[in-house]
Write a structure and sequence with these properties.
Shape of chain B: globular
Oligomer: heterodimer
Shape of chain A: globular
Order of helices and strands of chain A: HEHEEEHEHEEH
Strand content of chain A: 15-25%
Number of helices of chain A: 5
Largest interface: A-B, 23 and 34 residues
Strand order of the largest sheet of chain A: 2-1-3-5-7
CATH topology of chain A: Rossmann fold
Strand content of chain B: under 5%
Radius of gyration of chain A: 15 Å
Helix content of chain B: over 70%
CATH architecture of chain A: 3-Layer(aba) Sandwich
Number of strands of chain A: 7
Order of helices and strands of chain B: HHHHHHHHHHHH
Chain lengths: 146, 313
């Protein structure tokens, strides 16, 4: 691998900017995501910043089972993110649909609509688990490209 | 020819400027984190952000004016970079200087804000248009106090050239104390210019997602972030040159260290301000600037005239 692509890969691992998107969660996972962003857990030491717009983000953190109504929005927000982009499904519902699986208005997990790179189970997930999941996602990228 | 190219491109020109502004962003973020009792980002964080953004896909919205959309980050970056060459850094001589460069530097520092406005406007997104309009509204609030505050050292020194102002204060260092209100005004105005908390109204994340930069991604965003960093460095250097002109006749190495310390001091003050305040509304910001800052800067000019009449005739 050339030195430039090595540097780019290093930079990608060191600066994952995230965007938080609620695809129909009950809000518990969202609270935990916001919890993980507080100074107590200090995820800026990994270079993680919360961004308001999908154009700036590298990693989309989705919480909740995909409802019929949010499906189009989820696709559009995903398509607005510039390449390379990653998706993390936070919580049991986002991973598989959870208890909402089979509801008349629910599609299922995030991976029924867009590709998912990492699943973090939990109901709700703990902030430590979210940080661990994102770090493991980055470590897997290192193995793949390094 | 070769030496002036070296001056412009390497030291104290573009390369030094880029690296020092990234270091300054790190200092700002780390200091901010430490004041919030956090560990903060590692030292290479701004560099990693810059490389990552440069390597990302740059999306240009279909509705946007593609030429202007591409041009604006470069315009902001160029204007901020050029203004650096006229500021005396660690001696009383700037790299280039002529009579009136103070005005040119301040106008060059206004261009990035106009670039932010145009960038938001041509993005053809509602959020970025709101951010753009707010950036321009804010410009009218802080620009006049900033202009009047930096006029006061010029009036005292009787010159429009930054290098001559620095030389004057180097001869008569005690006159710095008459400029303290101007220093505070320019600090607050600089916060507005850099769109930092409490004046980050144009890019208020919680209301209008990303302000003017909402639609920007990839290397265009990287250039914009770089432009903001360089603007911070140039603004801090300008404030240091006008209001803290000390240690300018030292040995170049010692003078360089003093210059770095001065810039870090100004940026630390900006970090403290952005840590202890929360964002205010645009109408509150304009009211604050016109009711308190503008009269204070008039008083500063009055002080400058009185001091000049009493001591410098």
């Amino acid at each position: 691998m050339s030195i430039i692509s090595k540097m780019v890969n290093w930079a990608r691992l060191k600066s994952p900017w995230i965007i938080h998107f609620n695809t129909g969660a009950c809000n518990a996972c969202d609270i935990e995501i916001v919890d993980a962003l507080t100074p107590r857990y200090d995820i800026e030491r990994f270079g993680i910043l919360l961004k308001g717009t999908p154009r700036h983000a590298d990693v989309m953190i989705c919480s909740g089972a995909v409802t019929n109504q949010i499906e189009d929005r989820l696709k559009r927000v995903y398509e607005q993110m510039p390449e390379p982009r990653f998706v993390v499904a936070v919580g049991t519902c986002a991973s598989s649909g959870g208890v909402f699986n089979g509801c008349y208005n629910v599609k299922g997990g995030i991976d029924t609509v867009i590709p998912v790179n990492a699943y973090i189970p939990g109901c709700p997930v703990r902030p430590e688990a979210i940080i661990d999941g994102v770090v493991k996602l980055l470590a897997s990228l290192e193995e793949k490209e390094g | 020819m070769a030496t002036s190219l070296f001056y412009i491109l390497v030291f104290p020109g573009i390369l030094f400027l880029g690296l020092f502004s990234l270091a300054l962003e790190f200092f700002d973020r780390k200091f901010h984190a430490r004041m919030q009792n956090r560990k903060g980002p590692p030292w290479f964080q701004p560099l990693a952000d810059f490389i990552k953004l440069s390597a990302k896909e740059g999306i240009i919205p279909e509705e946007a004016n593609a030429t202007l959309f591409r041009l604006m980050p470069l315009l902001a970056l160029t204007a901020a970079t050029v203004s650096f060459f006229y500021i005396p850094l660690w001696s009383t001589r700037a790299l280039y200087s002529f009579d009136g460069d103070l005005i040119v530097v301040i106008y060059l520092l206004t261009i990035p804000t106009l670039a932010f406005f145009l960038a938001g406007w041509v993005s053809a997104s509602l959020y970025s248009m709101l951010g753009a309009v707010r950036a321009l509204t804010q410009l009218f609030a802080y620009e006049v106090p900033l202009f009047m505050a930096v006029l006061s050292p010029a009036i005292l020194a009787g010159s429009w050239s930054l290098s001559e102002i620095a030389a004057f204060f180097n001869d008569k260092p005690l006159f710095i104390i008459f400029n303290v209100p101007g220093f505070l005004i320019s600090l607050i105005a600089l916060l507005g210019k850099l769109e930092k908390v409490p004046f980050d109204i144009p890019e208020a994340e919680t209301e209008i997602v990303g302000g003017s930069f909402t639609e920007y991604s990839g290397r265009y965003l990287a250039f914009f972030r770089m432009a903001v960093d360089i603007e911070m460095l140039v603004g801090a250097s300008l404030v240091a040159a006008l209001f803290l002109p000390i240690g300018l006749d030292l040995h170049p190495v010692a003078g360089f260290i003093v210059y770095i310390l001065k810039v870090l001091f100004v940026v630390a003050l900006l970090s403290v301000l952005r840590t202890i305040f929360a964002r205010i509304r645009i109408d509150q910001m304009i009211r604050f600037c016109w009711i308190y800052l503008a009269p204070l800067s008039l008083i500063q000019i009055l002080i400058a005239f009185i001091v000049k009449g009493l001591f410098l005739q």
